[in-house]
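2024-03-11 09:14:02 INFO receiving multi-entity request
2024-03-11 09:14:02 INFO entity count = three
2024-03-11 09:14:03 INFO echoing inputs for audit
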Amino acid sequence: MLAYVANLATLICINAILAVTLNFIMGYAGIFSLAHAVFFGVGAYVAALMALQWTDSLLLQLAFAMTVSGLLSAALALPALRVRGDYFVAASLGFQVLAVTVFSEWKSVTGGIGGLVGIPPATIAGHAFVNPMEFLGLAAVALALVVLLTRTLVRSSFGRSLKAIRDSESAALAFGKNVALIKTLSVFYSSAMCATAGVLYADYLSFINVESFTIDASTLFMAMVIVGGIGTVWGPLVGAVLLTLLPAVLTYLPFLPQTEIGSVQQMVYGLAMVLLMIFKPDGLMGIKQGEA
Amino acid sequence: MLLVQLIINGVQVGALYGLTAVGFSLIFGATKIFHFAHGASFAISAYVFYYLYAVLNLGWPISILACSIAVVLFGVTLDRYVYVPIQRSNGSFFTVFVASFGVAVVIQNLIGTVFGRGFISVSSALSKSVEVAPGLYVAPTAGIAIVIAAACFVALQLFLGRTNIGIALRALSESPALVRTFGLNPKAISTCAFALGSLLVVPAAVLTSMTSGLNAAIGGRVMLISIAATIVGGVGSLRGAACAGLLLGVAENLAVWRFDPQWSEAVTFIILFTFIVLRPSGFFGRVVTS
Amino acid sequence: MLSPRKIAVLAFSMFVSFVGQASAEDFRIGAIFPLSGANADYGDLYMGATELAVSHLNEAKALGGKLSIAYEDSQALPQQGVIAMNKLVNVEKVSYVLSAFTGVSKAISTTAMRSHTVAVNGGGVGPDLAELGEYFWNVIPLANFEVRAMAPYLVQKRGLKRVVLVYVDDPLGQSIKRELESSLPPLGGMLAEALSVPSNAQQFSGIAARVRDANPDVVYIASFGAQQSQIIKQLRDNGVTQQLASYSGFAIPAIANLPEAKGALFTTQRIDWNSEDPVTKRFTQEYQLKTKRAPTAYAANYYNAVLLFGTLASAVQKAGQPVTGENLLAKRREIGAFDLVGGRLSFEKDGTIRSAMQINEVDGGAGKVVEVVAAP
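2024-03-11 09:21:47 INFO inference complete, emitting structure
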């Protein structure tokens, strides 16, 4: 029983990292990206390839995954610099769809639709993380670090500039802020951190394929941020917990036919998004208007 | 001949893409609402038609009428009960978009639950191709699609140019405030925009159910193409959305000529991405300020 | 999608697991099937067969106690499969799991290997399923065998030499392509063109145009599920009149009932539904009675998978050993061949089986067997 709970908890930690990093660009930079799963995937594929071909050292995998993901984020930053909100959503959507095609076709790297199997467990200084409880500890530590780093960044002058840009780009420009650079850096940070979740995911499941990195995944991460409360510290964490547990909880409801669990899960968070936007747009942990 | 065949296939598909995109563009241009649930309108219309025509066998006039009513009701209800309340309290782009997105997710899964997640199609003799020239196969649905799309578009232009409501719609996309000073009710006009925009999905939905078939996730796909066409064509330009839809349909099919069919979907997004980066205002749109 | 029987079975299954570890005598095996989502029909199909097998085993009192199956929903998604496998291994503590769908099977194979739990596939035919470790077994002949049975028939018996392949670009499709490329030339045939399609594609008019352009004698389709019907219909609608051929993916009711599919050829495992062999006979009769459907190879395979557990577990018990994955694997190696639906099936070293194949023709009903190809 414990192993089952540990399994869920680990997935929650991974999802939380994704939600926190997405919240960073959505909540603080005002960049609505539907392509977050792409960087998750990039991180996972880099880690998997490294583990299969070269080294199972977790730290090296992290370093490489974050770098590759960060560099790739420039492709997303480019439209972010050119156009505002609604257009950017479209661009990120396009980027996501394109990425899925690449993931499915670049068989030598990603294994195509078949994916990559038998990824060896990650190691730090020779110690392999096979025990699920140990891995949970690893994931929790990673989450804590990401949250801490993000919070520090948000509270710094970089974070204040970011919020200034979100609230009024032209005013920020007028004040001499290098909007382009700040936006690019924030996307870089978000994508690089997102890749860490991918590394953990690949090392944990020992199998990855493109199905985990589609638009459905991006939608789920966005839902976590929104339901939890965008632009807050606890919001994405709450969202991640709720939405990761949702399918598991639904399986225990006796009156729900098993065949419909997947649909019901999506309907629940779809409905949650609609109702929240009408009645409480700041999400469950949302701040009142006027605060930070 | 292969090339010509692919171009004709592309024009058929593109005509329908264009029509759906025009519906989205109309709504977006007039109300500034990013109606992500437009894809859901398409899905609702298609499935209602499928159910009435193929399952209950009610004949196509009733089926088309019913699915038109259903989709208009959907669009208008969404406007009245979701978008308007949101705009009243906190009308940021983000909140509206997320609500619309949520609706789309709910509808997609509702359809999946009720009708199943497999592929379904409406069998009709119209979808069977006829060899009009050696190596060139065209089905009646192709001709119907092109003719209806053109007719709808012309009718729309007349409506927007000649009727009072049409002119009011155009006025709304230019300046909502000014519309009020002229004594018109922007809310009523935007409801019209939703009704009209949603109605425009019906021909495409009906024809798609007969040719490519449907599945529960089709709303999402249609939405992506409508957004892509609207942006590439230029926001605010219906002509642009129609042309861009046509272009995307042709490009998607032409890609099969030389590339692996795997990439045909990606072609749409490569085009979209290129436009956003190089020319965000699209073909005919006004310049976008960041 | 709502199936009262399915709900009842699942409810009972949950009830049993809630009641806690039932008496030490009772046996529980796991099953990871797509119970929701686009492939729920397959899950339903498999479940009908597995439940039948459970009832037969319990009737025969083959094992010391009662057997029951803990079903988990994979939604045909690998990640969900892993979560399900985790639950089965750690919470239900099963030693034997039924798996379905290549992607899911690959995902759970690592857990199976590490926890020494036997995982059995009865539905997926991707050849990469042969490479998932010693604890992963396949009771269904894999796709490369299917192609090897079909190719000589097409070229030599039917004179169809020029083949065009329409395939989904996943391991299954790729292996079928490789198999066609290697088996056609020695027979005097050739693979003129191979067109890959995305697994979620619905528009095939462009593909049809290219197929026509390649001028084939026969079109081989390597797709899956409902997409197959779409491909067939649109190929026919767009002027492709040539013979169609495929692998066992065509063995579903949707294709049997599709008018445009009439005359298409497809391979399946050879199962003589009219055989006098007692195991086959009993399965055929009762499956028909219970589910009101004609049995298919998929159903037979999952029935066999459960029956296999019954045979192995009772042999292990007779030897005085506990029923664990290691012991089941050892017994399988020891016994080697088993009397299951379809006749005597023997296991290869890599956990796959060789079996005779049959070539069927779609005729609007249960399909007509036009050729039997002996086991290689």
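2024-03-11 09:21:48 INFO post-check: The domain at 144-272+359-373 of chain C is CATH 3.40.50.2300 (Rossmann fold).
2024-03-11 09:21:48 INFO post-check: The first helix of chain C runs from residue 4 to 18.
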